[in-house]
Amino acid sequence: MTSANVKIGVVGAGTMGSGIAQISAQAGFETVVYDVSQEFIDKGLERIRASLQRFAARGKITAEEERRILARLTGALKLDGLSASALVIEAAPEQLDLKREIFKKLDAICAPETLLATNTSSFSVTAIAAATRLPERVLGMHFFNPPPLMALVEVIRAERTSPAVVERGLALARQLGKTPVTAKDTPGFIVNRIARSFYNEALRILSDDQAEVLTVDRVMKEAGGFPMGPFELMDLIGIDINFAATQSLYEASFHDPRFRPNPIQQRMLLAGNLGRKTGRGFYNYGQK
Amino acid sequence: MGKNSVAIIGRSRLAEELFRLSREKGLDAALHPDAGGIAAPVSLAVETYAADEEEKKAIVKKLDAVLPSGAVLLSSCLASPTTRLASWTGRPERVVGFATFYPIQGKKVIELGAGLRTEEGAIREAEKFFQALGKETARVKDGAGLIFPRILSLIINEAARSLDEGVAEAEAIDVAMRLGVNYPMGPLRWADQIGLDEVLAVLEGLQRETGEDRYRPAPLLRKMVLAGWLGESAGKGFYTYEGESQNAK
């Protein structure tokens, strides 16, 4: 199968959706991006254009390639616009009811062979698949932010996903230029679950006053070899996003104490100290 | 041995590495497989054992008995806070904890933890020792595993649980953590390099000190240690190693 005659649909033109649409078009797939308003679609396409220009400026792609990639992208204001896709990747806001509604519609309009994938990081893929009549063709394809730069895709087997669909999902992820790994549909999948310890234990060390923010970050980088310390990374991710990920894992695990969120993070959230994007988090980044 | 001689005690890879590095840096250092062979005078003893607590206690007590009274005992506090280590000795003021995992090559910073009774002079001597090895030091509050070993052990524990629960294959877990969050090594491969017994010791130490469930070791990790599958050094851990090859099979 070549990418030339294969269409990929993306639901949502936000940060993740536009990033996924970009790698899809870069990999040679005709790509349709759906969102609820033309404004959102335009913003998403603008984000893709800016990203491609940065690639071009660094000599990663030629001006001709840039033009061809953009020509493979179209917007759609109706989900029907995605009906001819071999794969639809949903990257709508993280609201379970909304995702289930979208999958119900996709299930009705797409051919039975179409793979329906969700990019969710906090919900059970099984719960989303259950909104369809053909849960065998529903899987998780969890990309990492920003999709054009992060090589990993977690391909998630839900309770009823068929093995053939998992294989197809893996093949498509490779065609998108990514390195896929498979994981069972369990809270946090692989990365969000295991990485919790990096953040949560650092927060615990801080709340126990065992070391300061700066010391923990320095030690994790210079003794541990991590590219970023936990606190600077939380500031980059956003305290709200990181806190929500911890909370969702805590809820999904029926309050396993290993995943219990830390009050420090909650206080920062309440204070509006969300990290770099607000100019203030564990570190100060100047006024915003 | 001269006045400022260093005794490194243990059979671990970390002990051997510390000894090699000390010699390379021109320190008057000797490696002793156990506390028995130490001849006075020694100004600093580095003790690296970090698995079974009873055994650790016996080693620390023996060292305390054979070392000159003013000598500093720099002891691995991976599994027990420095204050606990110091409580086994008659020289709590001279006991300093350090926590790091093998190998120390490539690690710029070594963490030190002073016990409640540790005196400033002893910490300074410990800092001087690591500085002589070309390392920086970071002082943190006393606790099992200090910072890096503690956080990494919890990451490894969660990876071991995920593997045991069938969430994903070992290789998939390691690839995911390297590519998804840019970890320098996959946690399971990392555990094999460190030694699973040391990772387990950190978790057991934290659980013992805090009484908290969040530090409960993954059953698989404990079983693997009991089975002798300690990682690279044993030829088998989460991966299999043949001969001198460091590559995962």
Describe this structure in words.
The complex is a heterodimer of chains A (288) and B (249). Chain A is 45% helix and 14% strand. With 288 residues, chain A is α/β, with parallel strands linked by helices. Chain A has an eight-stranded mixed beta sheet, with helices on both faces. The model of chain A has no long low-confidence stretch (mean pLDDT 96). With 249 residues, chain B is α/β, with parallel strands linked by helices. Chain B has two domains: 6-141, Rossmann fold; 148-234, N-(1-d-carboxylethyl)-l-norvaline Dehydrogenase, domain 2 (Orthogonal Bundle). Chain B has nine helices and seven strands, in the order E-H-E-E-H-E-H-E-E-H-E-H-H-H-H-H. Chain B has helices at 13-24, 53-66, 82-87, 120-132, 148-164, 170-181, 187-194, 196-210, 219-226; strands at 6-9, 29-32, 44-47, 72-76, 95-99, 109-114, 136-141. Chain B has a seven-stranded mixed beta sheet, sandwiched between helices. In chain B, helix 5 packs across helix 7 (187-194) and helix 5 packs across helix 8. The interface between A and B is large, with 44 and 45 residues.
Average of the residue pLDDT scores of chain A: 96
Query: Helix coverage percent of residues of chain B?
Result: 40-55%
- CATH evolutionary superfamily of the largest domain in chain A: NAD(P)-binding Rossmann-like Domain
Give the termini separation of chain A.
49 Å
Strand order within the widest sheet of chain A? 3-2-1-4-5-6-7-8
Please, what is the average pLDDT of chain B?
Answer: 94
Q: Tell me the structural class of chain B.
A: alpha/beta
* Most extensive chain interface and residues per partner: A-B, 44 and 45 residues
CATH topology of the largest domain in chain B: Rossmann fold
* Count of discrete domains of chain A: 2
Query: Architecture of the largest domain in chain A, according to CATH?
Result: 3-Layer(aba) Sandwich
Distance between the termini of chain B: 45 Å
Overall shape of chain A:
globular
Q: Percent helix among the residues of chain A?
A: 40-55%
Q: Assembly state here?
A: heterodimer
Query: How many helices of chain A in DSSP terms?
Result: 12
CATH class descriptor name of the largest domain in chain B: Alpha Beta
Corresponding CATH superfamily of the largest domain in chain B: NAD(P)-binding Rossmann-like Domain
Largest sheet of chain A: 8 strands, mixed
CATH topology of the largest domain in chain A: Rossmann fold
